[in-house]
Design goal:
The protein is an all-alpha fold. Helix content is about 80%, strand content about 0%. The mean pLDDT is about 85.
């Protein structure tokens, strides 16, 4: 509910309204998230955790290259959500870089594992650097001034996968 509220109303979304939408009292919300920053951080960290869990889930259920592709597509969706809640993230005390510190390791770990698995399978070039894939997708995300950037980024995933094959 908080993610939706921050998406719609930015960092100044009503926390009382968040509690109401979640079906809990404001006191319960404030016990778990004593400040607005704590709630914004929780929303962001939940999204990053979803990426980490998805990498494991995809690796367990899919062939290596398919798992890598599925995760990269999910990463594009994550970038889109990050753009939407960016005003709220930027309002966190200490700035967004404070939030991103721990998340970099989780995201890097997720793609590292998927790429290494794909390399071991022999389907992906062994000189591929996982961060290069992230850098390309993040780059497309930074030039997201057009409404179709996400569609373009998803096409880029297939281009990157094709270019990474042996």
């Amino acid at each position: 509910m908080a993610k939706e509220a921050f998406t719609r109303h930015g960092a100044n979304a009503s926390l009382d309204e968040v509690a109401k939408q979640a079906g809990i009292g404001p006191g319960t919300l404030y016990r778990h998230f004593p400040t607005r920053d704590a709630l914004i951080e929780a929303v962001y960290h939940t999204e990053v955790e979803k990426l980490a869990v998805a990498a494991q889930k995809f690796a367990a259920a899919m062939p290596p290259v398919d798992a890598l592709r599925a995760w990269m597509l999910l990463f594009v969706d994550y970038l889109a959500q990050k753009h939407i809640i960016a005003p709220a993230l930027n309002a966190v005390a200490g700035g967004p870089s404070k939030l991103y510190e721990g998340s970099r390791e989780q995201i890097q770990g997720a793609i590292d594992g998927l790429v290494k698995r794909a390399i071991r399978s022999g389907e992906i070039r062994n000189d591929l650097e996982p961060f290069d894939l992230l850098r390309a997708l993040i780059g497309v995300g930074f030039v997201s001034s057009t409404p179709d950037w996400q569609k373009s980024a998803k096409r880029l995933v297939d281009i990157l996968i094709a270019g990474s094959r042996r």
